[in-house]
Design brief:
The chain is an alpha+beta fold. 51% of the residues lie in helices and 24% in strands. It is built from 2 helices and 3 strands, in the order E-E-E-H-H. The chain starts with a strand and ends with a helix. The model has no long low-confidence stretch (mean pLDDT 91).
C-alpha cells in the first residue's frame, strides 16, 4: 500500500504468514530529511504507528467476532457498507469480463 501525504510517503508491505497471521513492514520517505525536520518527521511516524495500532486492534476484534458462534455470514449492510458492495460489484464485472475474453481467445 502507498500512502502519500504532503511532504512524505509511507509504504505498507503486508506479508501473509499463516491463514490468521500476517506481518506489515512500514517504510517512510520524507521530502525533507534535514535536522530541522527530524522532529516533524518523527511525529508523523508516531501518528502513523498510533493509527496502525488502532487499526490492528479493530481487526483483531472483528476477527474474534467472525470466529464466534454468534456470527452468521450474510448480505452487506446497504446502509453502512455501500462502498464495499460497489467494490465487489466492480470486481465481479472485471473478473467476469476477463474470464469471457480468456475463453474467447482460447
Amino acid at each position: 500500500m502507498l500512502n502519500w501525504y504532503e511532504g512524505y510517503l509511507d509504504t505498507n508491505f503486508v506479508v501473509p504468514l499463516a491463514i490468521n497471521k500476517m506481518k506489515v513492514v512500514f517504510e517512510f520517505y520524507f521530502a525533507d530529511v534535514s535536522d530541522a525536520a527530524k522532529a516533524r518527521n518523527k511525529q508523523s511516524m508516531d501518528v502513523s504507528e498510533r493509527i496502525q495500532d488502532e487499526d490492528h486492534n479493530i481487526c483483531e476484534s472483528v476477527q474474534k467476532g467472525l470466529s464466534s458462534r454468534a456470527y452468521r455470514a450474510g448480505r452487506l449492510s446497504v446502509r453502512r457498507e455501500a462502498g464495499e458492495q460497489l467494490f465487489h460489484q466492480l470486481l465481479h464485472q472485471d473478473l467476469t469480463r476477463g474470464l469471457r475474453q480468456s475463453v474467447a481467445a482460447g
